[in-house]
Amino acid sequence: MYDIIGDIHGHATPLKQLLTKMGYQQQGGVWQHSTRTVIFLGDFVDRGPEQLEVVQIAKSMVEANQALAVMGNHEFNAVAWATEHPEGPDGYLRKHSDKNRDQHQAFLAQVSEGSETHRELIKWFKTLPLYLELDGLRVVHACWHSKQINVLQSYLDDRNSIKPNAWPALALKEGAGYEALEVVLKGLEIELPDGATFQDKNNHTRSGIRTAWWRLDATTYKEVAMVPSSEVSKMPDTDIPVNTLPGYASDKPVFIGHYWLRDDPSPLNPYVACLDYSIAGDEGGKLCAYRWDGEKTLAKENFCWVERSV
Q1: pLDDT at residue 90 above 80?
Q2: CA-based R_g, the chain, Å
Q3: How far is CA 280 from CA 17, 134, 190, 298, in A?
Q4: How far is CA 279 from CA 8, 11, 65, in A?
Q5: Which pLDDT tens digit goes with each residue over 218-273?
Q6: Are 303 and 289 in contact (CB under 8 A)?
Q7: What is Dmax (Cα atoms) for the chain?
Q8: Burial tier of 67 (Cβ tally within 10 Å: 0-12, 13-18, 19+)
Q9: What three-state secondary structure class fits 310?
Q10: What are phi and psi of 308, to 5 degrees?
Q11: Strands, DSSP E only, in 110-265?
Q12: How many CB atoms lie within 10 A of CB 149?
C-alpha cells in the first residue's frame, strides 16, 4: 500500500520525522518500510534550508524501489532554468530574470549552480513523470484534467516523463502543450467575465482566478474562485461556461499537492485529497501524508502529518 507525501520544499528534518512516524527506517542509506511504498507529489525544492538532502532522500528511495514520485512545477522550473533555449546559447527555457532567480536562488546556492551535483539533480528531475495512473489511485501535482492530459501524451514517453526534445514546446509560452502543462502542474485558471478583477495577496490586480476544480457541484465563479477571503465578494455569482471545469470521474481517488492549504488535513471531496499543507509557510505548517490502503473513498483519519514551527 502507499503513503502519499505532499510538497516538501527543502524541509528534510520534517520529512525524516514524518517517515519515522509512519514506521519507515533507514537501511543502507535508504528510508524503507517492509510493507509500504511512498509516493512523492513533487516540489522537493525551493524555499527551505535542506533542499539537497530532501532530493537525496527522495531520489535514493525511488532508485531503490521504495518510492515513486511525480514532477512538481518547481522541478519543471529548475530544469527549464538550467536548459539552454534552442535558438541561442545566451538564453534559457526559463528566463534568468531577477524575479525568477529570486524564486530559485536558495536551490542554486545549496547545490552550487553549474556544479556536478546540480547537473545530476537536473538529470533526475527530467526522469520524473507528470502523473501516475496506478491500480486504484491517480497522482498528479496540481490538477487531474483528462482533456489536458490527453493533449500532453505526444510530448511524453511511456513512463509519462517529458521526452528530451519536447522541453522547449512545453516550457515556452505558446501552444497547446504549454497550456496543458500549466494546468497539470499549476492548476486550472480561468478568466473572469465582464471585466471583473480582484487584488491578489501581493496587491496586484488580476482578471483570472485559480479554480478549486475539485468542487464537483460548483457552477459559479464565486464557488470555485481561489482568492483572498477579502476578495470573494467581488467574484461574479454567475455560471461558468459549460465544460470549463474538468470534473472528475470518481472511479478512484486522486492525490494532489501544490495548493498551500492551512486547515486540518481532510479530503477535498470523497475522491480528491490535497497533501500540501504549507510546510514552507512563513508561519510554519505541516508536512502531510495520506496512508492509502486500497479504499475507493477517502477518510480523514488516514491523514498523517508533522508540524513545523517557525
Answers
A1: no
A2: 19
A3: 15, 29, 27, 25
A4: 7, 8, 26
A5: 999 999 999 999 999 999 999 999 999 999 989 999 999 999 999 899 999 999 99
A6: yes
A7: 60
A8: buried
A9: coil
A10: -120, 120
A11: 131-134, 137-140, 189-191, 198-199, 205-206, 208-211, 225-226, 254-256
A12: 21
Cβ atoms of 131 and 184 within 8 Å: the answer is yes
Burial 212-226 (b: 16+ CB within 10 A, else e): bbbeeebeebbebbe
What SS3 state is found at 22? coil
C-beta of residue 213 within 8 angstroms of C-beta of residue 97: no
- The single residue listed with the C-alpha cell 513533487 is 42
Q: How far apart are CA 30 and CA 24, in angstroms?
A: 10
Long-range contacts of 93-99 (CB under 8 A, 24+ apart): 93/167, 93/168, 93/171, 93/172, 94/171
Instruction: Quote the distance between the C-alpha of residue 64 and its chain's center.
Output: 23
Does residue 287 contact residue 277 with C-beta atoms inside 8 Å?
A: yes
Residue with cell 502529518: 305
C-alpha cell at 220: 459559479
Dist. CA 70–CA 127, nearest whole Å:
9
User: Which residue's C-alpha cell is 497533501?
Assistant: 275
Helices 51-63 and 12-21 meet at what angle, rounded to 10?
A: 40
Residue reference for cell 541561442: 88
Please state, in angstroms and rounded to a whole number, the distance separating the CA atoms of residues 151 and 245. 16
Residue 254 cell numbers, joined: 486522486
Q: Which amino acid is at 100?
A: N
Q: What is the mean pLDDT of residues 172-180?
A: 93
